[in-house]
# Entry
Amino acid sequence: MKNIPPMPVQKSRKPRSLGTIVVVVLLALIAPLPARTQTSTPSSNWQEEVRSLLNARAKAVTDGNEQAFVATMRGAKAEFREEKVTWFRRLRALPLGHYSLVFDQGEYSELTRAKDLEKYPGEVHVIQVKERIGFRGYDVTYGAEDVFLTVLKGGQGWGVVADDDVVDIALQSNRNLWDFGPVDFVQDDGIVVMFHPSEREAGARMLAISKTARDAVIRQWPNRWRENKIVLMIPTTVNELARILQTTFDLSTFVAFAASSVDREKGWDLIGPRVYLHWPNFRDYSTAFQRSILQHEFLHLAARELTGPYVTSIMDEGVAQYYGEAAYNPPTPQLRTMVRAGRFDRHLAEDFIFTAGTPNEIYAAYEQANHFIAYVGDRYGRSAGARLYRDFAAQSAVAPGTWRYHLDRACRSALGIPFATLERDWARRVVQELS
# Structure
């Protein structure tokens, strides 16, 4: 997820999936799962039987076959079946091009606990499944998000009976806009905007602004944006947005996010990009500023065709602001305050500051990012920051070393200078300009 802080009146001045990072941190704090004490011997080929169930469920969604979809929920409570049928109908009303459920046991072999065995009669397994969703005409790569399904074998075979049995250990099933209410959409020229019916007017306006913003990004980003299709979503409330993104940090100072899934099978590529608006904040700004925010977010989408596992928020947000936003040199009040108060340590901000810092620290981190890329552009030419990003993103996902090590390699190849020297020279410029 990428984000932009808003520009409050009279105050100083925005998915790699942060939700994934947060989950990893939380899991590190959780005690190991208790040993599984199955009261009956699991079927020897239960995994293949469950894959057949999931394939049938996915095919029912793709084909729009509601009866077949319901048939994959044998043994489920009526409330769960009704909830998922509503989900099915809402999703089918959208331009769905691909839907699949992949159970490969690549991360968790099984999540079933003693409490699950006591809760359900018969053979039960709680499993991690990758839900892949793609919209026709927009997604070259499909998103791949986790759903944690409880599957139960009864007298009539297997059925999906729940998707929230491991919430208590911080494993949340993926949720989308259509989980929270009916969704309508408008589309044109490779851009689709999805929204709840109450935001129909906003959807039409965002489509028009998005066209202009995308054209600006295509002109301003020195690297090529090959697949410039956009899926833009407008959650109505901040709680809805937080649940979709699975964030644990305060969203009150943010206005928009670019989010992607991580494809671990293909070099940790970012796939299935989406842009989400924090509508309660976003709607309060002028059309010009909204267009600037969208340019920032769309630049993230363009950059993600290149990005790699070592690219830091400093680089991601720096290029998004410098090349994406209309004003390349926004004011730097928080960075200036840091310098004058002696709190500027002459190093670029670490990733965690961009979400876990105080509001002022977050603003200062974004100001550093923009100032750094602007400095690179001033010293080496306007396209230099894009070259640096490209070389940084090209670092192998399996190569050892910290982000500073890999950024140093990129600096040497793109700019002919060590990163330590570049950071030192940039810090001197910051102090000279802002003291």
Summary: The CA atoms of residues 387 and 413 lie 9 Å apart.
